[in-house]
User: What shape does this take?
Amino acid sequence: MSGSAVGDKIRKMSSRQQIPGPTVKRLTLYLREVDRRLAAGEVRVSSRQLGQEIGVTDTQIRKDLSWFGQFGQAGVGYLLDDLGSRLRQILGKDRTWKTALVGAGRLGQAIMSYGPFAREGFEIAAVFDADPRLVGTEVVKRRIRPMADLDRLVRDRDILLGIVSVPKEAAQVTADLLIDAGVLGILNFAPVRLEVGDRASVVTVDFSARLEQLAFQVSLGLKGSIDVDE
Amino acid sequence: MSGSAVGDKIRKMSSRQQIPGPTVKRLTLYLREVDRRLAAGEVRVSSRQLGQEIGVTDTQIRKDLSWFGQFGQAGVGYLLDDLGSRLRQILGKDRTWKTALVGAGRLGQAIMSYGPFAREGFEIAAVFDADPRLVGTEVVKRRIRPMADLDRLVRDRDILLGIVSVPKEAAQVTADLLIDAGVLGILNFAPVRLEVGDRASVVTVDFSARLEQLAFQVSLGLKGSIDVDE
DNA sequence: CGTTGTGAAATGATTCACAGCT
DNA sequence: AGCTGTGAATCATTTCACAACG
Assistant: This one.
């Protein structure tokens, strides 16, 4: 029964139903809340209870989950344990993602020491920097490699994700290097749009754009966390 | 006509037409591209040219701008200079936003030294930390203040925005302190939903949620920057 | 002409309403 | 009774199509 359930999920996913972007963003929140409740020793939740905490309606949660098959027990709710592992599977968190970090400046250092990254299946398997003064030194307990080693190390270590925390001028070249070395996804912290065609997926985290959005909301006088979002 | 155009905008904005969230997010990108072209010495753009660079359709841009009145010259396009200052005004970037940073760990330090913040109208007017070992020291050329001084300093210096870069356990308390001291907007880096009611606006930047979204895309095999977003 | 600004149409996401399971 | 899963309805956003303009 559990075997065929996994099969359902995979079949549905590979039939290339397009999962809505907003749904994906929420999935992460669901998993977090599920883990929190599991850690608290709880066993079951209803979609309403789950949503309460994270500001999402019960219908929304059920609709989101329905993209991936059947999860719950009608009349009862969801088994946290089960829901957790299905979500982890969907989000690709049932494996370890080897990640290359490029740019070991203050932002890179912050990322290296950011708890959640290290803990939740994202292993920073190599760190690179173009600054010769940094190369060879240890930062946050990690040896910094020269850019020249990037291609070889990414290949040898089967690294699939890249984190770009270099100045914006260097972001595009860095992305190209990573992709040429075989990386499939890039988390970009530079405030630029990376042009990658269909060679990889990109997700950008843009601090200053967000601060601007905040300033806009405040200056409109729109109090209230209208769009906590993410 | 230009005087009344500004009037139109303000009237439209205060008549509380609800500006769509996605529009606000794009406005920031438009301003960036406009500034880039201004710096390159250009004088005019059409919506199509503007969109090319940042991956947005011309219609989308015109629709977005139309929320704020008339901007362009039919048959010609937009005057970069004019468009830039209108966008700056809309986004609240025609003033300096005094900001309090709470949490001077590595992430806080990265934020302090993040160029765009400092340059684009966001002044970090005070930095706080709960760690007594940090308080009183200088980090990235800024003196770290104790939490006990937060309320007084935020009031005295007319600080309107707060940046929360503390561990997630401390995020909610920190937000409450900031709001009680009069802050109207919070940029939250902790991976939790802040409960602020209608007392302030919140925008959250959640690194690990984003990495998860990336892992999801990659594991789905969805190559291509489907959702560069932000 | 080429380009803006905008109603109208199309697409996408959320909420509603309820059938069906436990 | 309580709750899930989902088609149908509503609401939001994007795209289309075109009139008006310089």
About this structure: Residues 21-39 of chain A form the longest helix (19 residues).
